[in-house]
Each structure stands twice: as structure tokens, then as C-alpha cells.
Specification:
Elements: E1 3-4, E2 16-17, E3 36-38, E4 47-48, E5 51-52, H1 63-70, E6 87-94, E7 100-106, E8 119-121, H2 127-139, E9 141-153, E10 157-169, E11 178-185, H3 189-192, H4 199-208, H5 218-234, E12 240-244, H6 245-255, H7 258-267, E13 269-273, E14 279-281, E15 287-289, H8 296-307
Parallel strand pairs: 6-10, 12-13
Antiparallel strand pairs: 1-2, 3-11, 4-5, 6-8, 7-11, 9-10, 12-14, 14-15
């Protein structure tokens, strides 16, 4: 028997799902290294990363409502590029604190996409409003935009992509355009989202998933220089770093994403200090205080050692 999508399309017609998928077991949603899969109306945990999972009941129903949700966002972005014959569009990449990313599987692989990210034409909305509307319609998620990610010139559109965090909604409430919504570790994305149009996203995402406020990354660079200085001096990376309290708070709350902060604290013991000195310590009692910019190549190596990406 043909399985039908429980949500009708824009014409009120039911949509057959030619190759249905299976939902993940409950424990997959709690595993930051695992891929978790939702299908329409599948059972979901009560929370993921401490954010409740339930269908968004108060989603906007008109353009004014969608625009109101993006009013006052403080991040900046470049002008949307134009290309002859291509319409503007917008999409979103929603990142969880555990470093996984939300991916959708278009129903019946529409457009040649097995898996991709929510996106769509603007249809009278601003790119920002369109992005959160598409996120809801295609993935069932209620999201808040956190920044500009990249632009992708596609066959019929130029798509502006944003990063976002999930604040509600449920992937099991996905609209008819999607037959699967998945939570995928960033390291696994290249094996999942293989369409050439998604290549700019995969290139830009690793750094954007780690840094929220890139203009404040000077603090992060001082941390990297301290690590590089320790390596230069002792020939090995430190095991602990003491960061002045104000810088510690800024890195944790404003500059690094929850995922970026988690990777840092998994690699090193990170402590806040009122002593005012940024200092790295080794396993054998070695000590190195920040003094100046470290070697560029070692700063890059320190960044890759912690985050597996060059943030220099």
C-alpha cells in the first residue's frame, strides 16, 4: 500500500511517499555523534539538548507575522548578490548545541536532492523572514536566526543562507515538502548532503558553527597564541588554560557557540581567573603566559587541534 504524507500540499491534495523511511530509535536523539531521523508524525523525545520538542502551534499565518519575528536582529550581512535570470531565495542551517545540524529530505527527492537544507523563494518576504518560514514549513522547527552563513548560486536562484538555533517546534510536524528530517553531526554532512548546490554551505559551515560573534574573536586569537607559545616553548600542547574572568565569560557567552565552547573544554581544562593573566599549563607543570602574537602556522595548528577548523 502506498504511504501518503499526512500533510496536504498547497492545492489541498494528498502526496504519496514513494520510498518511505523509518524513524530512529529514541536514544539516537541524545547521541551527539549519531544521526537521528524523524518521519512525519513519528514519536519524538520531550526535549533535545534541553529545548522542548512539540509542534509549533502559534506559527505566523501572514507576511507581517513572519517579518515581526526577525525585526531587531542585530547581526550584519552583505548585500544579496544578483545573477541574470535567477530569483532571490533564502534558506537556513539550524545548529544544535551538541554540534549536529538539521537536514531535510525533500519528498520523493524533489529537485534531485536526497538531503538538503530548508530553503525557498522569497514570495514577498525579506530573506530573513523567508528563511525562518522555510525552516518551519520544511522541517517543522521554530528557529531564531543567529547570523549570515553564505550565498549559493543555484540553477534558478541565488539563495542567501543563515545560521539559526532551534527554540521550539518538532521535526515530526514537517510539512508535505519533506519526508524526513534528520539531525546530523557536522563531520557527517558531506556524506549526507552531496548535491553540488550545497557545496558553499559545507565549506562555510564549520567555522560558523563554532563562532557566533566573529568581531570578538580577538579574544580567541589570544587564546590560540597562548597555546602556540606553549607549544613553541615546550614542544607539546598544554592541558589547562587559565583565562581572565571577563574574557572567559565573553568567549563562553558571546563569541563561541555552545558547540565551539564544548570542543574547547573537551580539549583543555578551562578555568576563569581573577589574576588577569592568560596562562597555559602543561601536564608536567610547564607554564606559559600570553605575551605577543604566536607563530602564524602554530596558531592555525592550535585552532585545528581544538576545533578541527582554521579560525585564524
Amino acid at each position: 500500500m502506498t504511504k501518503m504524507h499526512p500533510r496536504c500540499n498547497e492545492h489541498g491534495h494528498t502526496v504519496p511517499i514513494k520510498q518511505p523511511s523509518k524513524a530512529s530509535l529514541a536514544q539516537a536523539w541524545a547521541d551527539p555523534q549519531g544521526i537521528a531521523t524523524a518521519v512525519p508524525d513519528s514519536a519524538m523525545p520531550e526535549t533535545i539538548n534541553d529545548v522542548p520538542v512539540s509542534a509549533w502551534q502559534g506559527a505566523p499565518t501572514d507576511a507581517a507575522g513572519w517579518e515581526a519575528l526577525v525585526a531587531g536582529l542585530s547581526f550584519t550581512e552583505p548585500p544579496v548578490p544578483s545573477a541574470p535570470g535567477k530569483k532571490p531565495a533564502a534558506g537556513v542551517v539550524t545548529i544544535e548545541p551538541d554540534g549536529r545540524v538539521w537536514v531535510v529530505a525533500p519528498t520523493n527527492a524533489f529537485g534531485g536532492y536526497r538531503h538538503t537544507f530548508p530553503k525557498g523563494k522569497l514570495d514577498g518576504l525579506s530573506p530573513r523572514a523567508s528563511a525562518i518560514k522555510e525552516a518551519f514549513e520544511e522541517s517543522g522547527l521554530q528557529v531564531e536566526l543567529t547570523g549570515y552563513l553564505c550565498d549559493s548560486v543555484r540553477s534558478t536562484s541565488v539563495t542567501r543562507y543563515y545560521t539559526a538555533r532551534r527554540i521550539g517546534g518538532s521535526p515530526a510536524a514537517m510539512g508535505w515538502e519533506s519526508q524526513v528530517v534528520m539531525l546530523v553531526p557536522i563531520s557527517e554532512l558531506r556524506g549526507i548532503t552531496s548535491h553540488p548546490n550545497d557545496a558553499p554551505i559545507l565549506k562555510a559551515l564549520p567555522a560558523k558553527a563554532i563562532v557566533i560573534y566573529e568581531w570578538g574573536l580577538a579574544s580567541g586569537h589570544r587564546v590560540l597564541d597562548t597555546l602556540a607559545g606553549h607549544f613553541t616553548r615546550y614542544g607539546e600542547w598544554p592541558t589547562r588554560i587559565a583565562i581572565p574572568t571577563g574574557m572567559h565569560e565573553g568567549l563562553r557567552e558571546e563569541i563561541l557557540s555552545p558547540y565551539g565552547w564544548r570542543l574547547l573544554t573537551e580539549r583543555l581544562k578551562v578555568v576563569a581567573t581573577d589574576a588577569g593573566a592568560l596562562c597555559a599549563y602543561g601536564a608536567r607543570g610547564q607554564e606559559h603566559s600570553y605575551d605577543t602574537n604566536g607563530p602564524v602556522d602554530l596558531r592555525k595548528r592550535a585552532s585545528e587541534w581544538i576545533w578541527n577548523v582554521d579560525l585564524t
